[in-house]
Structures are given as structure tokens and as C-alpha cells.
Amino acid sequence: MEWCPSNWGRLVTRSPHWWLRLDGEYIALKVGGRQYRQHVDDDGRVQVLPGFFWSRIELKTEDGTALSVGGLPNRKAAQLAAAVQEALFARTTRGRKALFATILEQIQAWLSAADSLTDRSHDARRWITHEQQQALLAERPALPLQPRELERLFLDEDVHDDLHSDSHRAALDALHDWQLDWPAVWAEANAAMATRELVLAKDFLDRVESKPLTEEQARAVICFDNRVQVVASAGSGKTSTMVAKAAYAIDRGFVEPERIVMLAFNKDAAKELEERAQRSFDRLGMGDTVVEARTFHALGLAIVAKATGRKPDIPEWAVDSSLGFHKLAELVDDLKDRSIHFRTQWDMFRLVFGRDLPPFGAEMLADGFDRDGTPYIRTLQGERVKSLEECVIADWLFYNGVAYDYERRYEFDTATDTHRQYRPDFYYPDAELYHEHFALDADGQPPKHFANYAEGISWKRQQHAARGTALVETTSFGLRSGHALEHLAGKLGDSDVQLDPNPDRELPNEGAKPMPDADLIGLMRTFIAHAKSNCLTLDDMAARLRQMPEDQFKERHRRFLEIAGPVFQAWDNALADEDGIDFEDMLNMAAGILEQGRYESPYDLVMADEFQDASRARARLCRALVNRPGRHLFAVGDDWQSINRFAGADVSVMTGFREWMGHGQVLKLEQTFRCPQELCDISSRFISRNPAQIAKTVRSATPAIGPVLQAFQMTRREEVQDGVRQYLAQLHQQLLSGAVPQGRDGRVRVFVLGRYRADRNAVPADWKTAFGSTMEVEFLTAHRSKGREADYVILPGMVNRGFPSLRSDDPVLSLAMPDGDTYPLSEERRLFYVALTRARRSVAMFTLQGKRSPFLDELVAEGVVEVTGISGAAINEERCPVCKVGVFVERNGPHGAFRSCSSYPLCHNKPKGGRRY
Asked: Do 834 and 845 touch, CB atoms closer than 8 A?
């Protein structure tokens, strides 16, 4: 078809002579003796612009030249516009058909690969691993259309001749499959495979251990993803699951025996794993099979030795916790001998900063209570002060040899009919200086529940200003940040009162007992272990300190770091003197070698036992061992039983398993073979109050034999052993009479579990002579009982400030533990849970009158146990509402009988009307 202007059109529009020809998808325009050829597309290169009688044609060539011709009658222009649109439509339809064909081919190719993976896994009875899924998802082509545009293309009637044809229905099915949530599809396929495998491998799963595996255990064995964590309840058979996993991997041909390693925390645990595995192999007729069980220590050493050609030396004191404590004590003593400054700062921390401050405005844990019920803290000098902050100031003054009076009467009479005589917090007679410590935050605001506090501050300031007495002020914020003591030292210096820090200053007998050296050394050892495990330098931890919230006791953390620096260096120097490294250094060195590719891990399946007690260095080594494609990590543990923070354990590596490993399956063993259901329920509710713990529902088919939980109260600590003897005597008689069934080997096993070794005194010395025919009694600390079980468990030390220990979770550890557990007494709660769940039958707790453990209080408040006398008689007593620990007891005084708190002299409270004449 060809178009040209009319004569009138050319004259009126003054257009040159031209003609235009449309040839398929091309336009040819000849004007002024020159011809142009342009492809018709949809980007506006050809435009027909109608006028009153004639239209103008605009053409933009590929080289950017713009042409404009006119004089084409509107009727013919309309025909040209229609022809151009028809050409455009034809071209667009062909393009969309080609686009559809390309996209469909890409979709079908990827779906074919996905189907192939699923089919291979189905036929081979294998798990579709995370690595396989990610590799396939990485190959998934990026289509040029969004999902909605993609659907329009597949349903475009102008593109497809027949939307109902078989071929197009197949294309629509492909589009549907393409848009599926493929990780969810693979998860369903894996779940179906596992269910099918439970049947196909039933004979193996029933024979691999002495008893058939439970379905939970079997599913953990079958799940062969790249990273798997099994959260195993106490007594749920985690060792059986590990051993069965190794045997299953070998039997199915997934992994060669020499490519498997089982990692344990000590030699005894590694030996048990190896022996259990060998018994399993013998049972299955695989007697020649050997799987390696190693400690983290041995494996790390071997990696470093093979990669460097030199086996590092780790002194025994750098591995054994007891030897490490004594070594550190020697190093600290040496630092004290060589440096007066260090000794001064070390003892300053012990005496002045041994206790952390509660959050600003929070209730403090009092040392005692005055007659009016006011809580107090005892200072080194023996005063009773009203807050921990005032105690820090008083102890700092005492340590520095500054004479002071606490709450001495103001030298001017201020008493009125509504106000008592003013008593400033501190007075310094050598400086004639008063000191008020105000509970004010960084913004100068008191806690919200401090009524009329600001008015009181103003009144005190006015008194000093009006009467010309010198006043120095400090605040809560200043004390926590460190500015307050610096400011106070300056004011005292201005008055010629010089500080005289003296570690040898004699402590008054009536004063508070400072933090023991042993506690600070133990804290320092734990701190070093965590810092090294996390590869943190002192500068790193100083940076963390600067980022801490302002309401925390940053000055205490700063002073701890100040003494930690020399101790840290002395520890490393001692290692260097023996040409050695410590355990954490070695683990990180081994992990670094693997991460850098300097050594190829020889294992395809790495199995880690007791993963809840892994340090970050151990977790890093596990991760590095499987950081190549086709490797598998199988970590088993129970975060509810993570109790070795003092040895470097970090529960967050288990509660944050997926974050640590990048991905992972988290399975649970919730059926226990140990505790009766009632004890499972009680202990589970107790530990689960910490929201950071992994949730699980523990189930048991173990029948209850007698009460699962008992609590007995004695009057004095000296009576506990006799109470335990009476408990054992009653159990002895029940066993002899047959009222209670015998144990597994004829005698029942009884654990006496102490929070401390000193609790050993609760075990009757003559138990073997008196009761040995029916029972075996063994004392263990709660920590040592981990992994053990007995028919009966006795907890002799359920007393306030005993179990739980208040020193186990020192906040300074947060500097070395980036993801530390902040729930109050979290480590002690887990330790108590461990103690409870050692019992196959029953737990008996012993407490003292007026000194009941808050953990026992918690169980009583829940209604799961009643505290009685050893005879079972109910105890009717009234708890002191002031100290909330003691109870009101009968006493005799000069004026007759009366009732008062059993915590006297720490608490002076008496009930109203408590005196009888």
C-alpha cells in the first residue's frame, strides 16, 4: 500500500512531494529525492497527526533524524494509521508468541530438574537436602515478567490459537507448578519420605538398639538434611539416637564409616559413644564396622597438627577446670606481689564493686530489715545503709581511708511538727563537708514511684545554701557511669582529704563480708574462657562496654576490665612460657584452618553430643568441619540442661542453632523413659518460665511410684542429716515390706545432690550399714549428676541464697558473651531442672525454717508440693511480710514471750500484737 499528499494538500501545507509505502513491518518514505526505511515498532517512531483537512506524518529514524511531511487527506491518513496499527499488532503478537515459547521452555527445563531431584530422592529413599534445594533455586531462571503479567501472557487469546488444547493445558500446569512454594513442596516430600521410610526401614530401626526406636528417634535418624539439631528431653534416649544415626548412614550407604565422627566433651563420654556404637554394629551383624568417637580436644589438636606439621601443646591446667582455677590463682597472686596498683584495683573490685546494682529504681536484694521494716545493706564498716548505691559509696570511702559518718544529724535544728531532723547521707568531718546521693537518672529524673522526691532535693539544697554548709552531690547515673566517685574524690581533695587505698586495711568483724578471692578468680577464669571462645580482645570488650545502656553499672564493668587485662596477659604469658596454647585458642585455630581451606575435613557426617554445653569455639569448629558441600552436622542436646557457663558454655549456640549454622532442621525428642509424667510436667513448667528456652512438651509412660515431689522442713542445718536418715529409713522399710518395688538390680539407687560439695554432710555416714541391703546412696553435686539417673533424688540444700546461688550469673560476663541469657538466675534454673529430672521415681527436698529457697517457694505457690515436717505433719507458720523469707517464731525476752521474724538479727520485724504478757 502506498500513500502520498494531494495537490491541494501540498499547496496549503507547503509540504514537499513525498510518498510512503508500508511493506509488512517496514515503512519506506521518499522525500526530497532521498529514501528512508524504518522498522515499525511500538515506541512511537511513526505517528499520524490529523489536522482540519489534512494530516501530518512524523517519522523518527534509528539514527535519530526526525522527518515531518504533510498534505495527506484525513481519510487516507486514517487508512494509514489503521495499517500501521495492524502491522504493530501483527508484530506484537508474533513477539509475544516468541516470548511465551521462550518462557515456557525455561519453566519446563527448571521443572524437569526439580522433578528429577524429587524422583531421585524418592527412588533412593533419601532426604532432599537444603544444599540441593538451594542449588536448584539458584539455577531457577529470572523471568522477564512479573507473576500477574506472566498469567496474562499464558491466557492471551491473541497469542494462543486454542486455550483449551491439551498442549496449552500442559503449559498452564507448568505455570502452576512454577509458582508453587518449592521449599514447602520439598518439605512435604521429605515428610512423606520419612513416613515411608519408617515402614521400609522398620526392621533396622527396631534392631539397631536394645529396644526399638520411638517414632521421634526414628525420624531424627532418617532426617538427613545438611544441618540437624535434635532437642532431646532429659531421659529421652539421645545417645541411642546418635548411635542409630551412624549405623543407619552406613547401612544405607550414605556415608562411609571412616567419614563419620562422633564428638563428645570428655574421654569418658567419647568412650561410651564408641562402645554403644560397637554394640549396635554387633547387633546388626556389622561387627567389622568402626566409627570414630573423639573429644573436641583431641580432634582440634589433630587438625592443627596435620595442617601445621606441629602438634600444639596444651598444658593440663588449660584444660582441667580445677587445675585452671589454681593456676589462675597463682598468676593473680604473682600480679599482686609485683604490682601495688594491680593489688589495689583487684581488692577494690572485691571489696567495693563485688555486687552489681539492680536496674535504676528497682527493688534491691536486702541484707536485712530494720525494726520499721526498712531494708538495709551492710557496709564493710558495719553501718546499715538504705541502698546498694550508698553501700558502694560507703565501701569506697572505707577502702580509701576516708573518715565518714552515715546519716549524722545535721548541725542545725530542722525538725518541725511534720518533719524529722534532717540527716544528710554522709558527712566528712575532716573536710567539714556534707554529701547527698540522689536517685536521679541521666536526665536528672527520679524513679517514677519516688513521690515528692524532687521537692525533697530542693529542700535539702535550700538548707545548705541558707546555712552556708558545704554540700557535694552525686547521682545514681553518676555512680553507674563512674563520674560520681571521681567527682567526690575531687571535692575531698579540694578539702585536703587525700585518698589512701589500702588493701591491708583491717575489716571490722561486724562489717559485711567482701567478695571472696576465690569467687573473683573463678569469675575471671569463666570470663577468659568466654572471651577467647568468642575471639574477643580487651578492646572489643571495651567497645561493648561503651555501648551498654546508661542505667547499668558501667563503672563496675569498667573496673572489672581494668583488672582483667593484666590477668588475661598473665594467662597468655604462662601459656607462652610452656610453648602452649589453651583449649579455646586451639579450637579457634582449628576452625580457622578449616575455614581458610588449609586443611580438608575428613568427615561427611559430624555428630556433636551435649550441644547445649558447647562454647562458641566448639560450635564454630562444628560449623567449619561441614562447610563444604555434601557434609552433614547432627547436633544433639537439651538447652534446658545447659549448666556449664562457668566452663565456657553458651546456650545461645543451641537456642540460635539456625542463625549459627545458616539453616537447619530442628527436631525434638519429647518422650522420656525416666521421670513419671507428673514430675515431667512440674519440671517443664518451672524451666519454661524463661522464654529463651526452646519450647517442648515432655511425655512419659513411666508409672508413678509414690509422690513424685516432697519437701521437708528442718529447724536447724544440723538437723538435715538426721532428716535424710529418717527419709532413707522409711524408704528402707517400704522396700523390705514390698510396699515399694525394688530397683533394676535389686536395690534402688539414691542420689543426694548438693548445690555445693559441702552438702555432702547431709549423707548419713552409716547409710551402708543401716540401709545398704536395699539401696545404694551416692553424693554428687548437681553439676556432676548431669547424664546420670537414680530412682530417688534428695536435694538437701533448698535454702535461700544456697540453691539458687546468687553468684552464678554475674553480669560482667555479658561483655564476653554477646548473646548472653538475661533471664534472672537462668543458669541456676537449668541446674535445678537437671537435679529434678535425675529421678525415675521421686524427689525429696530439704529446707530450713525461715530460709526456704525461692525455687521451692515457686513450687509451693504453684501447688505442686507441700512443705511438711519429716513425719509428714503439716507446717503452719506465718511468713514475714518484710523480708519475705523468714517466718514468725516464738521467743522469750525480759518482758515475756513474743513473736518475731526467724531471720533476726537480719530482720527485726514483729507482727502487730505479737507480744504476750
From this structure: no
Name the grid cell of 652: 545461645
- CA angle 455-460-462, nearest 5°? 95
> Packing angle between helix 616-625 and helix 296-308, nearest 10 degrees?
60
Among 680, 679, 789, smallest CA distance to 744 is for 789
Q: What is the mean pLDDT of the chain?
A: 91
8 Å CB contact between 669 and 234: no
> pLDDT, tens digit, for every residue of 283-327?
999 988 999 999 999 999 999 999 999 888 889 998 888 899 999
3 state DSSP class of 436: strand
- Cα separation of 440 and 458, whole Å? 13
Residue 3 pLDDT:
93
Is the pTM higher than 0.90? The answer reads no
Residues near 17 by Cβ (< 8 Å), separated by ≥ 6? 4, 5, 10, 31
Beta bridge partners of 44: none
Distance, CA of 835 to CA of 844 (rounded, Å) = 11
Other Cβ atoms closer than 10 A to 354: 21
With 70 as the cut, is the pLDDT of residue 407 above it? yes
Instruction: Please report which helix (H) or strand (E) contains residue 151, including its range.
Output: helix 147-154
Contact between 673 and 235 under an 8 Å Cβ cutoff? The reply is: yes
Which among 462, 484, 482, 465 has a CA at the least distance from the CA of 473? 484
C-alpha cell at 683: 519440671
Instruction: Name the nearest CA neighbour of 620 among 643, 640, 596, 638.
Output: 596
Provide the pairing of β-strand 605-608 with 470-475.
unpaired
Among candidates 704, 658, 656, 651, which has minimal Cα distance to 833?
A: 651
- Burial group, residue 157, by CB count within 10 angstroms (0-12, 13-18, 19+): exposed
Q: Is 181 helix (H, G, I), strand (E, B) or coil?
A: coil
pLDDT tens string 193-241: 999 999 999 999 999 999 999 999 999 999 999 999 999 999 999 999 9
Cα-only R_g, the chain? 40
Residue 220 in grid coordinates? 531424627
Q: Within the chain, what is the greatest distance between any pair of CA atoms?
A: 138
Strands 888-893 and 896-901: antiparallel
191's enclosing H/E stretch is helix 182-200
The DSSP secondary structure of 262-299, one letter per residue, reads EEESSHHHHHHHHHHHHHHHHHTT-TT---EEEEHHHH
**Cβ(266)–Cβ(618) below 8 Å:** no
pLDDT tens, 724-745?
A: 999 999 999 999 999 999 988 8
Output the CA–CA distances (angstroms, integers) from residue 241 to 112, 123, 254, 842, 887, in the order listed: 36, 25, 17, 26, 49
Angle between helices 583-595 and 616-625 (to 10 degrees): 30
Strands (E), 12-102: 18-23, 26-31, 34-39, 46-50, 54-60, 66-73
| pLDDT, tens only, 450-475 | 888 999 999 999 999 999 999 999 99
Q: How far apart are CA 714 and CA 851, in angstroms?
A: 10
Would you state the pLDDT for residue 890?
Answer: 81
Task: Give start and end residues of each alpha helix (H) in 252-399.
Answer: 267-283, 296-308, 321-338, 340-352, 388-399
Question: What grid cell was written down for 287?
Answer: 561387627
Look at residues 684, 612, 610, 643 and name the one whose alpha carbon lies nearest to residue 827. Answer: 643
* Residue indicated by cell numbers 524463661: 690
The residue behind cell 537449668 is: 830
CA angle 194, 198, 203 (to 5 degrees): 145
**Residue 917 pLDDT > 70:** no
The SS3 assignment for 600 reads coil
Amino acid sitting at position 718: E
